[in-house]
Task: inverse folding
């Protein structure tokens, strides 16, 4: 087994880091690219996944959120673990765990196994995001080298978001969806090998400690909340498990706040929220990123499940959205210095809201790319404006000594908002579609046997299961009903996400201002200008 020397004490500080630094950048960029691919991978193939494993609407939501939840709630803790015990170990271990998760997904024949695989991969990604950034910055010998390394990390993160739909769409166009996960698993093994061979060990344990009470309570609280939201439409909002899940989520959130207020090293500094502008920025991050990712999830259901587009056709709209941000990134950085985060966030969230309402107006029978180009481009521009400014907006309103914690906290609450996107959109859309189908079936002219079959499928699997069920001649009778119900349901989901983006824009306007010039980024936020974690959506 090949071992790598630690970077902490190079023999010649002026020359030795060059080769090691370059190698570390390669390994770190490969790792974060892998993590981002996993985050976006299901978007283009949700329809194929649903039909292949006969997933219900709730299960389809869990397939996405099973990856998002650990990636959101565990990243800060893994960052501390890397500082305490070594970033290289975390990088190798995270990539290997991701590979195991993708192996589980690649061999899945049920929604439950696929959800399990996604959860394992999500835990691995939660380690890769902070570890990849930490090994790169720790190996940078000068501020200039660090800036170049951060730019490379940003590019790799954005590249992963661009590659993911292309990778999954191209593979699943010609093979089972399982091969998309298998290919990503092979990439995870390559990332683990690169991390082992190319990076040196580094750590920074001084003053760092784990906040287990905070980590456990926030993770369980979010899981309980998501369970209630996702299962509500199928299990009934008044059912005991759903009501209990919401009560548990509230109790655990209270326990999290209590634990953080008494922790010597909290994962979330509650005193930051006593600063009104920061509290507003955090609320804006949660609400706004829910709006963006909820809209993206809505689009994936429209393309893959309702319209039955091929995986490659479903991938193209996401390539348009993801491709715009890196293309205009230099302009966005200049705008951030010139006009500040406030105007950019107002414009960005307003553009996202307009794009989602525009998409809602595109008729469901329009299956070509051209009718979608307008809302897709507007969505991409809005997303670029938001991710370029959202972290700088938070750190700009806190004392310089708290900018690091403010940046990490913004990352956490932003990611929490993203996990709510698929859950809330799915709950609204599926609940409304179920109610509409229940009424429509009664007046559809079906025989008693046909009505009984359709009602049983609707009750067991929800409207998506009924829409994709192969029932021979009965499917032809049901297709217009299920398509209209799902279209109306997910169109209402877009109204919800657009409202969220409008609220986020209003918060930005009130608390950050829409004036240009005076609110531009100051010296204390110079690092967050190029800090690219916002692109993680």
Result:
């Amino acid at each position: 087994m090949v071992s790598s020397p630690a970077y902490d004490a190079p023999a010649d500080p002026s020359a030795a880091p060059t080769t090691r630094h370059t190698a570390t950048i390669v390994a770190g960029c490969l790792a974060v690219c892998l993590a981002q691919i996993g985050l976006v991978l299901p978007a283009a193939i949700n329809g194929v996944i649903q039909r292949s494993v006969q997933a219900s609407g709730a299960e389809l939501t869990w397939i996405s959120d099973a990856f998002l939840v650990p990636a959101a709630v565990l990243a800060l803790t893994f960052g501390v673990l890397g500082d305490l015990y070594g970033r290289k170990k975390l990088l190798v271990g995270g990539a290997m765990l991701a590979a195991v998760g993708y192996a589980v997904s690649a061999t899945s024949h049920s929604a439950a196994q696929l959800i399990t695989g996604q959860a394992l991969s999500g835990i691995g990604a939660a380690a890769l995001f902070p570890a990849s950034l930490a090994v790169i910055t720790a190996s940078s010998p000068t501020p200039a080298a660090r800036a170049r390394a951060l730019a490379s990390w940003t590019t790799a993160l954005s590249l992963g978001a661009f590659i993911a739909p292309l990778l999954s769409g191209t593979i699943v166009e010609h093979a089972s969806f399982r091969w998309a996960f298998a290919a990503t698993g092979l990439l995870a093994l390559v990332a683990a090998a690169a991390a082992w061979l190319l990076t040196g060990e580094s750590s920074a344990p001084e003053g760092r400690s784990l906040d287990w009470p905070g980590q456990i309570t926030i993770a369980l609280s979010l899981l309980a909340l998501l369970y209630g939201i996702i299962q509500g439409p199928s299990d009934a909002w008044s059912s005991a498990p759903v009501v209990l899940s919401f009560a548990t989520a509230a109790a655990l959130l209270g326990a999290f706040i209590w634990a953080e207020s008494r922790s010597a090293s909290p994962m979330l500094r509650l005193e930051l929220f006593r600063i009104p502008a920061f509290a507003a920025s955090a609320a804006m991050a949660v609400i706004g990123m829910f709006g963006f990712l909820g809209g993206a999830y809505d689009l994936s259901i429209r393309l893959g499940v309702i319209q039955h587009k091929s995986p490659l056709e479903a991938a193209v709209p996401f390539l348009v959205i993801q491709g715009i941000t890196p293309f205009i990134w230099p302009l966005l950085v200049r705008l951030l210095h010139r006009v500040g985060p406030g105007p950019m966030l107002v414009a960005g969230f307003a553009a996202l809201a307009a794009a989602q309402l525009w998409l809602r107006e595109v008729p469901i029978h329009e299956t070509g790319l051209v009718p979608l180009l307008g809302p897709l481009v507007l969505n991409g521009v809005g997303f670029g404006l938001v991710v370029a400014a959202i972290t700088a907006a938070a750190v700009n309103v806190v004392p310089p000594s708290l900018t690091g914690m403010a940046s990490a906290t913004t990352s956490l609450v932003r990611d929490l908002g993203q996990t709510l996107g698929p859950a809330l959109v799915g709950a609204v859309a599926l609940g409304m579609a179920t109610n509409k189908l229940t009424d429509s079936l009664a007046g559809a002219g079906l025989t008693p046997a046909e009505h009984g079959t359709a009602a049983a499928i609707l009750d067991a699997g929800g409207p998506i299961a009924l829409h994709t069920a192969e029932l021979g001649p009965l499917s032809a009778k049901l297709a217009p009903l299920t398509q209209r119900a799902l279209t109306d349901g997910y169109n209402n989901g877009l109204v919800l996400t657009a409202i969220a983006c409008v609220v986020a824009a209003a918060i930005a306007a009130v608390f950050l201002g829409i004036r240009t010039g005076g609110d531009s980024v100051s010296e204390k936020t110079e690092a967050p200008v190029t800090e690219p974690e916002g692109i993680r959506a």
Notes: The chain has a mean pLDDT of 85. DSSP finds 18 helices and no strands in the chain. Residues 327 and 384 are 9 Å apart (CA to CA).
